[in-house]
Design goal:
Elements lengths: L2 H5 L11 E9 L5 H16 L2 E9 L6 H8 L2 H9 L5 E4 L2 H5 L5 H15 L6 E3 H11 L4 E6 L3 H12 L4 E7 L5 H4 L7 H7 L7 E5 L7 H11 L3 E3 H13 L24
Helix pairs in contact: 4-6, 7-12, 10-11
Length: about 270
């Protein structure tokens, strides 16, 4: 065997028992999903003994504008092929608004494109998207009416509202923080979220979407807001985590991140 053959890796490292590989496709300016998801899965590993590693592909996106979001969507297949080179067990397309900007139901097509690209590369894997995960999770917990917080400019927030309502869920109220630069979104303080959540019009709500964005940090506030409001609190990150665990066949056992991921069953609202 040549020196080149012995020193160059020609295939992904063999998978180890008791460990899963999670592939992420994220915007190039995202700084949150690769911090919040590993922390959530660290808690899962602490509770279950099963370990998780993360392997990312990045698609260019700096400003949260419709034009840049649509351009990012066109890179999804290439990113899926790249991340599937690591022979991952599941792929999460972690850019909620890029998918939602295409119109209600677009997550289905995006997930198919990514799954086909991974399979065509010889490494098929189940696929979720943050957009699809948020909608499906709200439907699964029976949330027919929600209130939410986004970091987006108001026109993009309107697109998110339209997308969610296109799935049969009424958005009672939506706060727009109007931060256009994606790096600045990642610097928003999650400790401001409890006060923002209190200001939402929540009468009749079945759940609160504390962060309808994969870049807006929220993990530090999820449990406190859920405990205070007595409603299920979901974020783009917790919904994505929930669907990754489901795709892997793993029961959620994550502490301090809301009832969705606790494994104890999701809270039901007073209206249910």
């Amino acid at each position: 065997m040549s020196t080149l053959e012995t020193t160059c890796e020609t295939a992904p490292e063999p998978k180890r028992p008791g460990s899963s590989r999670v592939g992420l496709i994220v915007p190039s300016s995202n700084t949150t999903m690769e911090t919040e998801l590993p922390e959530l899965f660290r808690r899962q590993a602490e509770a279950t003994g099963h370990n998780y590693t993360f392997h990312s592909a990045r698609a260019g996106m700096k400003k949260v504008t419709r034009e840049e979001l649509l351009a990012m969507v066109g890179k999804a297949a290439d990113c899926a092929e790249a991340v599937s080179d690591a022979d991952v067990d599941v792929i999460a397309y972690a850019c909620l608004v890029a998918v939602m900007a295409q119109g209600p139901g677009a997550h289905e097509g995006s997930e198919t494109v990514i799954a086909d690209a991974a399979a065509g590369n010889g490494h098929p894997a189940p696929v979720t998207s943050s957009a699809g995960a948020l909608v499906r999770t709200l439907q699964e917990i029976g949330a027919l009416k929600v209130a939410m917080i986004t970091p987006y400019m108001k026109p993009l927030t309107k697109m998110v509202v339209d997308y969610i309502e296109g799935s049969g869920i009424t958005v009672l109220d939506a706060i727009s923080l109007e931060v256009a630069d994606n790096l600045e979104v990642g610097c928003l303080d999650p400790q401001n979220l409890p006060a923002l959540a209190r200001s939402l019009q929540r009468e009749g709500a079945d759940a609160v979407v504390l962060s309808a964005c994969v870049q807006m940090p929220s993990l530090a506030a999820v449990q406190a807001v859920e405990d205070e409001l007595g409603l299920p609190v979901i974020t783009a990150a917790t919904a994505t985590t929930y669907e990754i665990l489901k795709a892997l066949g793993h029961q959620p056992a994550i502490a301090g991140a809301g009832s969705l991921l606790s494994g104890a069953g999701v809270l039901t609202s007073a209206n249910s």
